[in-house]
Amino acid sequence: MNGRETMGQLAQRVRASLHKYRLVWLVILVGLFLLLLPTDGGEGEEAAAEPAQGTFDLEKTEARLAQALSQIKGAGEVTVMLTVANGPRQVLAQDVDRNSQQGEESTQTVILSRGSSSQETVTVQEIYPRYQGALVVCPGGDDPEVRLQITEALSALTGLGADKISISEGK
């Protein structure tokens, strides 16, 4: 037997196998197709590009406060500036191993593996920054009634006392 005859016999066996076991071959082909599809490429890139919803953004907070305070009658267009004591922090899950015989303790941060190349830490708690003070500039800042309403609203939203909120008249 030469190489051509062997290839011819092999081709006949494959054709017979394809006809006889066509459903099995179909399942195998679908499985191979699914294996070749990207698993996390598009979603992972979008998630990395956009910040998580729970993250703290001072500029967005100031913009939302300014928009809300601008709705107060007589305030006009409001500009808000907030100061914070520290940045946002995350408390990560940790695995603590205690050796009772020697009195030693070792701590490791818990890491979650998702697939072959993706690893992330496990966040137990997110601590948002504490506000230190606020400055509000608006055209109606000289009116005592407007000042009181802005102070009460800002105090309710940020937890700041009236002594930490400064309201000035703008242009």
What does this protein look like?
The protein is an alpha+beta fold and 171 residues long. The chain folds into 3 domains: 3-37; 54-88 and 128-171, ANL, C-terminal domain (GMP Synthetase, Chain A, domain 3, 2-Layer Sandwich); 91-123, no CATH class. 40% of the residues lie in helices and 28% in strands. The chain is built from 5 helices and 9 strands, in the order ααααββββββββαβ. It has helices at 3-20, 22-36, 41-49, 58-69, 144-158; strands at 79-84, 89-92, 94-99, 104-109, 111-114, 118-121, 123-127, 131-138, 165-169. The protein has a 3-stranded mixed beta sheet with strand order 1-8-9. Strands 2-7 form a two-stranded antiparallel ribbon. The protein is elongated. 10% of the residues are buried. Mean pLDDT is 80; it is low at 42-52.
